[in-house]
Write a structure and sequence with these properties.
5-stranded mixed β-sheet, alpha+beta, globular, 2 helices, YaeB-like fold, 5 strands, about 100 residues
Length: about 100
């Protein structure tokens, strides 16, 4: 049974910022590829919620590399998957803000 995907305000804002950046710098094809890949991964995670690697055991936060530059952080709560953030891996060595 598929889990319900819940977008937090932060995850939605970050996702849209990535899309805006891709559209302005790389064009429609790169943007569409990122969107398609993201939704494909969300479909996989909704079916297999423990697919992502454990990023923070205490907070039950998992991560999944979408592209070599973008990582998704999420948490499983019952029958729901809470999308916490999309993180640009090129942002430097700081910790990601879940």
């Amino acid at each position: 049974m598929a889990h319900e995907i819940i977008w937090t305000k932060r995850s939605l804002i970050r996702f849209n910022l990535i899309i805006d950046y891709l559209q302005s710098e790389w064009g429609h094809l790169a943007t569409q590829n990122f969107i398609n890949k993201s939704y494909h991964i969300l479909d996989l995670i909704s079916l297999y919620p423990e697919l992502g690697s454990i990023e923070n055991q205490e907070k039950n936060i998992r991560g999944f590399l979408i592209t070599k530059h973008n990582r998704l952080f999420y948490r499983v709560e019952g029958n729901r998957i809470i999308l916490l953030n999309f993180f640009d891996t090129r942002s430097g060595p700081e910790r990601p803000n879940y």
